[in-house]
Each structure stands twice: as structure tokens, then as C-alpha cells.
Design goal:
52% helix; disordered N terminus; 1% strand
């Protein structure tokens, strides 16, 4: 059987059905929006006709072997770099490694593994999701359950990942302090079968790894510093992945997720600030988000969407928009 044979197969609009065996969301499940979703009201407001992935191009789903290798290897490289730099007392370099690792896991490669977007065999995908998130002292399968539910349910009250979107900034920052343990517990209560065993094993693994890092203090502070910085790095996730990018008061799916454009956003977010595009097409891997955005820009413009352009006081215009 080919690598694709054991993965959830997306429909033409980029979503998948529930797993018929486990009864839980499979990799890549997304919010339900009709492929030709129209948002015009009685006032004759602009509409957004959502094209299928076939219309946009199936090249958006392709990931090269080099891209896959770089994505999967970067978290391991960052961990090795942190410990090598820390052992030599190069703490600024070590800090850079742990910052990159925090971003490269939760927001990038782990996120692609959650959606099954890297073209891996199902078993390899599951194992790497667990291992790479354990490097960051988190549960990969708890992340998957919470994130796929977020795609389906936002802004529902039980959307644990999106809850910070409706908070003031100071509360969203405080929410990050316990976001990961709370997400693990939320997922544990809602999981069963294989997924539950993964979540229990990963939670146990996190505790063991943190204990090992602390127990090494009599000999070296490097592992404890790694654990402290890695855990602290996760505190910002509710602000970055919920508060900043979502608007729970938006009138529909197209307006409940913010649209970002501009050079500053591209540089600061390493071409990852395409949250609206991701919610519309969750099967597209992060390597293709910029291309997806370029293909959607004329449609967004016709629908009257104006993006947030970092560095400006007002919203910018998309290519093809009428000023």
C-alpha cells in the first residue's frame, strides 16, 4: 500500500470525514463550509465564492522530499543546537535555538503533522507527531484533538484553543500560563482508544523529561534551562494563535479569522501568518501558504476583505481591489 493509502483522503474542498473506526476526527478534518459558499445578504454585500482545491491547483498539496526533510529535521537540530550552545555558555545562541524550536514545532511542522499534510505514512505521522512535540514538552495528540476541534467549532464555548480570542490581551497572556496542561486534560477527557493511549503516554513522557531535566541540576544547568525556556515559550501561544488572528464577533467564517498581508508580517512570522487561508484550506501544508494566498487574493478582494498590514494604521488593499 502506498504512503497515501493509509491517510485520510481530503474531499475536493480540502476537508475530510470522521474516522469510521475510531469515531474521532481524522487528520485534516476542518470546519464545514460549502465549496461555493456565498455570503451575500439582503443588502447585496459582496460575496465570497470558495473555489475547490481542484480549481486552485493540486500543486498546493505537494511537498518535496527536501522540504519534508528540512521541516522534520529542524526541531531536532534546534534541540541539539541548544544543548551544544548551553554547554559552552553561549546562552544567547541557546535562546535563539529554543525560540526557533518553539515556532518550528507548534506553528509549523507539528501543525502539519496534526493535519497529515506532509505525505507521510500514517504510522510515521503519528510517531513523529508524538516525538517532535515531546521535544517541546507537550502532547502532540492532545494538540491534534484540540486543534481539529477548533477548526470545527470556533467560536463555540468548548473550543479550548480559540477561547483566548474573546479575551482582553492581559487575560490572553495569563491564559497561556496553564494552556498546555489544560489542553492535555481537555483532550484526555474527550479521547478514547488509541488516541487516549497516545495522550496518556505523552503526558507521562513530559513529566519524566521535566523530572530528568531538573535532576541534572547538580551536574549541569543546561537541561533545566531548556525545560524552563521551552515551557515558558508555550505561554505565548494563546495570544499568537487565537487572540491575534481570530475575531469571535465576526459575522461569518470569512470574518471570524483575520487576514494579514505585508512584508513585515511575512518576515516576522516566517511566512506563516496565513490563518484565514489555513482555515479555508487546512489540507494545504505551510510551505504552500504564500502561493495559496496569492491565488486567493483576487477572490478576497472581490469579497471586500481588507487585510491587516503590520506597520500601517489602516487596513491595506489586496491585489485587484477597487479603491
Amino acid at each position: 500500500m502506498s504512503n497515501r493509502g493509509q491517510q485520510a483522503q481530503p474531499s475536493s474542498n480540502g476537508t475530510t470525514a470522521s474516522d469510521p473506526v475510531r469515531g474521532t476526527p481524522v487528520l485534516g478534518e476542518a470546519i464545514t463550509i460549502a465549496p461555493t459558499s456565498t455570503r451575500a445578504g439582503s443588502t447585496g454585500a459582496p460575496t465570497f465564492e470558495r473555489p475547490t482545491l481542484a480549481d486552485l491547483g493540486h500543486d498546493l498539496l505537494e511537498v518535496s522530499a527536501v522540504e519534508r526533510f528540512v521541516s522534520l529535521g529542524l526541531p531536532f537540530l534546534c534541540v541539539a543546537g541548544f544543548f551544544a550552545a548551553g554547554a559552552r555558555g553561549w546562552w544567547w545562541a541557546a535562546l535563539v535555538f529554543v525560540i526557533v524550536q518553539s515556532f518550528a514545532t507548534y506553528a509549523s511542522v507539528s501543525h502539519d503533522l496534526v493535519h497529515g499534510n506532509l505525505g507521510l505514512h500514517r504510522r510515521a505521522n503519528e510517531t513523529l507527531l508524538a516525538v517532535i512535540e515531546l521535544l517541546a514538552l507537550r502532547s502532540g495528540h492532545a494538540y491534534r484533538l484540540a486543534h481539529l476541534h477548533h477548526h470545527k467549532a470556533f467560536p463555540a464555548p468548548d473550543d479550548i484553543e480559540g477561547r483566548a480570542s474573546g479575551m482582553p490581551l492581559w487575560r490572553a497572556l495569563l491564559d497561556g500560563l496553564f494552556a498546555q496542561p489544560r489542553q492535555w486534560w481537555w483532550a484526555l477527557q474527550r479521547s478514547h482508544g488509541v488516541a487516549r493511549r497516545w495522550i496518556i503516554a505523552e503526558g507521562t513522557g513530559v513529566l519524566v523529561l521535566v523530572a530528568a531535566c531538573v535532576s541534572a541540576l547538580p551536574w549541569t544547568p543546561v537541561p533545566a534551562a531548556y525545560a524552563a525556556l521551552t515551557i515558558a515559550g508555550s505561554w505565548i501561544y494563546p495570544v499568537m494563535t487565537s487572540w491575534m488572528v481570530h475575531d469571535p464577533e465576526g459575522e461569518d467564517d470569512l470574518h471570524q479569522t483575520r487576514l494579514f498581508r505585508g512584508r513585515i508580517a511575512s518576515v516576522l512570522a516566517f511566512e506563516h501568518l496565513y490563518h484565514l487561508e489555513h482555515h479555508l484550506y487546512p489540507r494545504v501544508p505551510h510551505q504552500r501558504w504564500p502561493l495559496l494566498a496569492r491565488r486567493l487574493d483576487p477572490l478576497f478582494a472581490r469579497a471586500g476583505l481588507r487585510p491587516i498590514v503590520l506597520g500601517r494604521w489602516t487596513r491595506g488593499a489586496l491585489p485587484g481591489a477597487k479603491e
